[in-house]
Amino acid sequence: MARALLIAPQWIGDAVMSQPLVGLLLARGDEVTVAALPWVAPVYRAIPGVREVIELPFAHGRLDWSARRKVAAGLRGRFDTAYVLPNSIKAALIPFFAGIPQRIGYQGEGRPLLLTKRLPNPGGRPPMVAFYAALAGGPDGGGGKPRLQFDDATLARVTDAAGVAPKGYWAFAPGAEYGPAKCWPASHYAELARALHAAHGLPVLLLGSGKEVALCDEIATAAPGACRVLAGKTTLIDAMALIAAARGVVSNDSGLMHVAAAFGIPQVAVFGSTSPEHTPPLNDRARVIWLKEELQLDCAPCFDRTCRFGHTRCLTGVSAQRVEAALAETVG
Predict the structure, then answer these.
(1) Helices 152-162 and 236-244 meet at what angle, rounded to 10?
(2) Cα–Cα distance between 144 and 64 in angstroms, integer?
(3) Domain 152-331 adopts which CATH fold?
(4) Do the two domains 3-136 and 152-331 of this chain adopt the same fold?
(5) CA distance 178 to 274
(6) pLDDT tens string for the chain (332 positions)?
(7) Is the omega angle on the peptide bond into residue 281 within 30 degrees of 0, that is, cis?
(8) Angle subtended by helix axes 213-222 and 186-200, to nearest 10
(9) 143 backbone φψ class: left, alpha, beta (φ>0; ψ -120 to 50)
(10) Fewest beta carbons less than 10 Å away: which of 104, 130, 203, 311?
(11) pTM of this prediction exceeds 0.85
């Protein structure tokens, strides 16, 4: 049995996209440990078969040279192979300092001394599942659809704490880490929340980080009685569990979109500045709305944080009625 250490990416969506790589390693009989930053570590705790999740005590964007040496010292002699998923130099330092014999990753920022096997950097924006699975020699990790799992006790604990029943609520994730050019307007989310509440009598839970509290408050204020703001009030693992137990999920292209996809939940994903060809929700029950062809938007995908033209037509042009219809289709 090979002992593998996986150095996780720093974003939630990318962490979800790495699950097929983990599955590929487990299928080979490898023992998998994941080293992850605290805000993505919960994703790996929802992957069956992961032996251990080590939370890395590093600040975002900092080298933390001495801290990396300290962590590496505790890992020395424990692993045969390391898979370094981020392309940065600092991500490759721990396996190097730990003396792990095989250290595999992409060339990234130029890491010839840090890695023993370097895959060439692919051009453009490749599908992320295949990008990660290729590190272990797999084209797509055996099916290419990330899957996460919680036991019934976890789902019951989290839904009870939120005062809802499994499948007895909708979940919206209206934020996006990368910027407003990925976010369907708050007024549209509010209109959809009012329509869903009127039609089904079920509450809408608004999920996200503390950065999205103001956005969620705006939605809730415009949809009186329909919404409960949980943004900033739950841990990531509890937010994931609330998504896993929801009747349906509506989101932008975000990390929580990928979480919903990995749980196989009925979902609608509204894309704006980014492309579903690069990071689609890999879920047979997902419906994607992207207006590039319909509106002949030559600017899409721009991958900008804010719309360079100031109109964000790719998002404002998606009506609440259209999302409601797509959600009804996937919920069945």
Answers:
(1) 100
(2) 34
(3) Rossmann fold (3.40.50)
(4) yes
(5) 10
(6) 899 999 999 999 999 999 999 999 999 999 999 999 999 999 999 999 999 999 998 766 666 778 889 999 999 999 999 999 999 999 999 999 999 999 999 998 778 899 999 999 988 888 889 999 999 987 644 457 999 999 999 999 999 999 999 999 999 999 877 667 788 999 999 999 999 999 999 999 999 999 999 999 999 999 999 999 999 999 999 999 999 999 999 999 999 999 999 999 999 999 988 888 888 999 999 999 998 787 777 878 867 778 787 778 888 899 999 999 999 999 98
(7) no
(8) 50
(9) left
(10) 311
(11) yes
Supply 17's token pair.
Answer: 């996209």
Neighbouring C-beta atoms of residue 323, cutoff 10 Å: 23
At the topology level, CATH places domain 3-136 in: Rossmann fold (3.40.50)
Longest Cα separation, the chain: 61
Q: What is the CA radius of gyration of the chain?
A: 20
Place of tokens 């509010």: 190
Rounded Cα gap, residues 203 and 224, in angstroms: 11
* Residues constituting the chain: 332
Q: Cα–Cα distances in Å, from 130 out to 82, 143, 256, 274?
A: 18, 10, 20, 18
Q: Where are the domains of the chain?
A: 3-136, 152-331
Q: Say if CB 259 and CB 180 are below 8 A apart.
A: no
Q: Which residues pair with 260 in a beta bridge?
A: none
Helix and strand counts by DSSP (H, E) for the chain:
13, 12
